[in-house]
Amino acid sequence: MAVLALAPVHPGEILKQEFLLPLGMSAGQLARKLHVPRTRIERLVSETTPVTVDTALRLARFFGTTPEFWMNLQTRYDLTVQAGAMAAELAEIPSLHAA
Q1: pLDDT (tens digit per residue) in 30-56
Q2: Measured between alpha carbons, how far is residue 84 from residues 6, 22, 56, 95 in Å?
Q3: pLDDT band, very low/low/confident/very high, at 97 (cuts 50, 70, 90)
Q4: Which residue, 6, 11, 83, 86, shows the most beta carbons closer than 10 Å to its own?
Q5: Contacts by 4-10 with C-beta closer than 8 Å and gap 24+?
Q6: Mean pLDDT over the full length of the chain
Q7: Domain ranges, ordered by start, for the chain
């Protein structure tokens, strides 16, 4: 049975789909509440910029999550994207624990 690989999920998609849309809140409204430039949240939601530590702290405070939640989403996204981009190069590196 073949396993289908899912595309990596950007933290901005999670922010939009799981937080902003259910609340009926725009990126601009959230930016005002977080005291950040509107473009920061707009770029995050449009998946063109990563979650920074500063933004993670602000999102965690506002939504009652943890900064680690947001940073882990970003780290997982970055690792998945980079691993795909480096797949051929990584395959050429021997493993110390290979049989």
Answers
A1: 999 999 999 999 999 999 999 999 999
A2: 12, 32, 25, 18
A3: confident
A4: 11
A5: 8/76, 8/77, 8/80, 8/81, 8/84, 9/73, 9/77, 10/47, 10/77
A6: 95
A7: 11-84
